[in-house]
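Chapter summary example.
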Amino acid sequence: MKRFLTYLVVAVTAVLTIASCSEDKRKKALLPNISGKAGEVIVVIDKGLWEGAVGTVLRDTLTADCPFLPQREPLYNLVDVAPSGFNNMFQIHRNIILVNIDSKVTEPGIVIRKDVWAAPQCVININANDAETAVTLIKENSQKLITTLEQAERDRVIANAKRYEERALAPATAEVIGGSPHYPSGYQLKMKTSDFVWITYAPQGTQQSILAFKYPVVEGEDMMSRTSLIDNIKAMLQKNVPGMFENTYMTIAPVIDPSVKYLNYKGHAFAEIRGLWDVHNDYMGGPFVAHAFYSQDGKDMIVLLAFVYAPKYDKRQYLRQVESVLYSFEWSKTENDAIKE
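The structure predicted for these 341 residues follows.
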């Protein structure tokens, strides 16, 4: 009897979960599509607060320089809107921050919501009973604000990549490294060897590329150390990405030291390398970001490197788009995986 009741509870819970998911999908389907440019944030705030300490700390947080770009560009472009002017036109924007400062607020804090007036939408509520509390909240949660907006922008790129995918490219990449990102429509295979793949999207005047490659793990060497990662990436670039002229090749630019961070995204551990690239003995260059991790059998290091070449344009959005594709990486499914599904 006890076992039967346990099964019954599990079954009812599963049904309710499925029903809840279906209801969420139905609600989302009824919402209008978001508006606004990528990298843009609507801030709904009283004019006095925007011109005071609250507005200053928000601008300092969200319009700080985007790191590792050749020129200065802000993380986000902010547009302030008075609460009285926050109408239907603004309510469907992709990213919204609502600043609510009222003496009646009993639980100051930051609340993140999705798909309130449109989809896929990110809405952040900053609730405080006075301006001083709001400033403290923003300072203490500055990284949370940035990463929330980054994730929202990233999710949109990945969703579009999966919806309009160049499906022939994933098998080509997986053949070399055992898995692949989801490449958006327009990307093309430029080069492929036994250990290196170059996928690119190059409309006139710009280029967004992803290099996917592997190199063997050396026993006794810390393959995830900064020195090992950078030296091996430079060696693979020199070998596989030649420049236009003799003795020219792509490399990591020495003008600024790249950053190395160790991250975990949805259970996938990797090293993030971020910096600038250039062409040895030539004048081409731009920003790049790479994800490095072990192969599933631990015998190779896998690197996904996204870079941008756009000499006439700002590069923040180009890099954010192609970097988001890296986060869509999935290992190839085996026969056992297919059976389990």
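To summarize the output: The radius of gyration is 23 Å.
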